[in-house]
User: Fold this.
Amino acid sequence: MESIEPKKTKENKDEKGNKKIEKRKESKSKKKQKGKKGKKDKKKGEKKDKEKKSLEERLKDKTDNLNSNNLDSSLNNINNFNISLKSPIHILNYHKNPIICLSILDDGRLISGSTDSTIIIYNKTSYQPDLIINEHKDWVNCIIQLRSGIIATCSNDKTIKLFNIKGNNYNILQTLNDHTNCVNQIIEIEDKYLVSCSKDKSIIFYLKENLQYKKDYQISTSDSCYYICQIKENEICYSENYIKLCFFDMNERKIKSSISNLSISSFNPFIMILKDLLFISECNKILIININYYELIREIEIPYSSWISGSCMLDKNLLFTGDGKGIIREWKIEEDNLILISKKENAHKDWILTLLNIGNGHIASSSADISIKIW
Assistant:
């Protein structure tokens, strides 16, 4: 009898062969589909990268298409730095230590505070001292004149002092001792509140009653608070240490938003508020923050600069900044952008700590070189 086993084996082999071919086809088809999917994923990834890159580009200054060298060297041939700033018209050397703060009084006189703990008021014509006040026991960090005409000062001696100044005489109206560490800055809000921030991790709101101030309420901060500024009618911005900005609603008495991972300048970081924009200095950059959305919208890097530590506006179109290398820069303000016009090398021999518009087209600068210059 003829065996049929070999035929079955052949058929089985053919079936197996066909199955292998089908598997190969399926495998190729899957690879092809996987390849298409991979390409799609790659395209999606590229699109995300592109969007991310686009966002990063939006955060950069649109004028910085030039590289740092080109931007800085482009200033070498500029000689149109404000004529009055080419050389100082007065140099004041009456403090013994760096001058941290400057302010201008209603009567036009310049007033300064120093790490030597003194406050000096200068004659508005000769710039000789009219009055020297020695009421603080440590650094004088901030001086402001309130709407009532009273002078308010704060110090590392943990106090806020209120002075009544008439001509070349003064008297202390009030001393506030509620902070337990250095009082770094004070601001006035309308004619209602005096607000102070401190290294003791607190901000205190003092309510005005007649010509006296009484503690109304206090908020705690998560770290030392160095700077505060009013950004809206009922809202302030303050820094925690040098790495975080917080936006506080005074009506609701709570933080509305915050921006972290910063490197805020150690002296006078709040440059200005223009419409809905806050300009703030960070190391060798100026940051522009939208205060309606609490978003960083632009970073303007300043080539070959150190910390931006002082600033003032000469008018609505001109901004001046000082830095840790003693350089003053002049900027043109264009909507949400700053265009560098020129710079003044060696304006001071050390860190510029404050710039102040003193009126009539003049500015004053104070420095760690223990001088004040009138330009």
